[in-house]
Design goal:
2 copies of one chain form a homodimer.
Chain A: E1 3-6, E2 10-16, E3 19-26, H1 28-36, E4 42-49, H2 56-59, E5 65-73, E6 79-85, E7 92-98, E8 118-121, H3 126-134, E9 141-144, H4 148-153, H5 155-162, E10 167-171, H6 172-179, H7 184-192, E11 198-202, E12 208-212, E13 217-220, H8 234-249, H9 254-271, H10 278-281, H11 285-299
Parallel strand pairs in A: 1-4, 1-8, 2-6, 4-5, 8-9, 9-10, 10-11
Antiparallel strand pairs in A: 2-3, 6-7, 11-12, 12-13
Helix pairs in contact in A: 1-8, 6-7, 8-9, 9-11
């Protein structure tokens, strides 16, 4: 089924103990689309400036990623992010951020994309997420991400967004802030009462927790990787494979969600093993399925 | 099959955000024995002073825990520990410790215990662990715990101990120190090369990693508990149920180890839900088996 993502397309500079990657392609919509495309066609909605050095048509060559929703604004500059990771690399330290085109009006969802049945709203201001969602026909399965600055500064808009979406995918610190609860299980249950039928909490190296309003729960460790070179994009790759699998399966029952979370976990493990998109561009669906089976074997008893 | 534990019996004072528990019964051998007794008879080897206010025969009433190896030294004082837990309670802060009788000669393993087939050497100085192990007939499945101070100060004795044991059960920071490797998977593999056929790394709220020298791996999340009141004894309860299950099953193949780790995870989740031993004394084997099945359901996909 049709899968739409709206999110950032960025020029990233990332420094980790393994090295520096300067001015490489990044952004939530890019990682998401790359990971999702192993499972399902993807419709990308995003905006870049005229300075963007990347040709996304070439970047995504051979993948079923529809760029009809990619807007290039001649007078704007592309989003830029510079981040550092230290030690166990559990958290990015933002060294520099230039929102540029992301601080302008959101992109338009093309007419041909409005009937999408699966939608992912990557992290951005909640009022922009509302405006993007307004352009989608009702009835889609909508998942969204958010971050601490919106929880602090735009809680009302965020809370009204939560009533409109089916699934919130956030990291553990965001869940704790949003629910005002340090225990992740009770935090997840509190977020459920705010609207979404499913809440997925990403715990980085410690895996994820998925809860739904029917009382189901699923706890999955991260896939163990010997080498983590660059965690950038792990969360968006996770969401991409997760939503890609759901769109492929055309189901959102809890059994499908568990499989989707496992695929998300696997995609994230490939992303972090190399800088930028290299971890995803160097593999195929068979690699993903192999690691999915390994993850099953590692966790079943 | 016969299961022997040697470890501490202590008078604990514990302060957590949920309250204070003063001068309560604690110690590695006590938590271990209590958890193991749900699965298998236990032989306890430990030593207390004449000031010990607890009657262990009464404490363990109704459980198959043989106290032939409990030594009371008239002129000595019992081990005391005062610990604090803050925030997410991932780590105990030792406020005060009086080794007392633990700084003396180790207890003697009674003649009738020497044929034990499963042995757990709780955390203590590696040379004491050697002396205790010297008293056991060869051929037992031996698991041990250790801690950072022995890794720093007594590495040679610890390394020679590792060559004599089958399974090391340690927490993640200890594993990283021992292997000089921040990645837990490669740290575990490095510890395998030091001797034990199995290494189990406890990650607190993030579960555990089990690896063996045959290349098998098992990753299990912690059981999600809504309320953590007192983490004291979690690791020893984990080891107790784990070794208790192995002794009950009379097997140590990787399949049995996975089940054992899951039972250990469940026992630890009961321990931390109440102060001191209350979490274990208020349940029976059926509660453990129910939660074991819940853990399976939570983690399978």
């Amino acid at each position: 089924m049709s899968l739409l993502v709206t999110g950032s397309i960025g020029i990233d500079t990332v420094e980790t103990p393994y090295g520096v990657s300067e001015n490489c392609l990044g952004g939530s919509a890019v990682y998401f689309s790359m990971a999702a495309s192993f499972f399902s066609p993807v419709r990308l909605v995003g905006v870049i400036g005229s300075d963007c050095p990347f040709n996304l048509t070439e970047v995504f060559a051979g993948r079923d990623i529809d760029l009809t929703g990619l807007e290039t604004r001649a007078l704007s500059k592309t989003f830029r992010w510079k981040g550092l990771y230290h030690g166990t690399m559990n958290e990015a330290i933002t060294d520099k951020v230039e929102l540029n085109v992301l601080s302008e009006a959101p992109p338009t969802v093309p007419e041909s994309f409005r009937n999408s049945r699966f939608v992912f709203l990557a992290n951005t201001a909640p009022d922009l997420q509302h405006k993007l969602l307004d352009q989608i026909e009702p009835g889609a399965f909508v998942a969204a991400d958010t971050m601490n600055c919106w929880i602090h500064g735009h809680l009302d808009e965020l809370k009204s967004l939560l009533k409109r979406i089916d699934c919130l995918i956030i990291n553990k610190d965001e869940a704790r802030e949003l629910a005002a609860d340090r225990n992740l299980i009770s935090a997840a249950e509190k977020v459920l009462t705010m609207g979404p039928g499913t809440v997925i909490i990403k715990k980085g190296q410690s895996g994820s927790i998925t809860v739904d309003s029917g009382g189901e729960r699923f706890i999955l460790p991260a896939f163990p990787t010997l080498e983590v070179k660059d965690p950038t994009g792990a969360g968006d790759s996770f969401a991409g494979a997760l939503m890609g699998y759901l769109a492929q399966a055309g189901r959102t029952d809890f059994g499908a969600l568990k499989t989707a979370v496992a695929y998300g976990t696997v995609a994230a493990s490939f992303t972090i093993s190399e800088f930028s998109l290299e971890g995803l561009t160097s593999i195929d669906r068979a690699n993903i399925d192999n690691r999915f089976e390994m993850l099953r074997k590692l966790t079943q008893f």
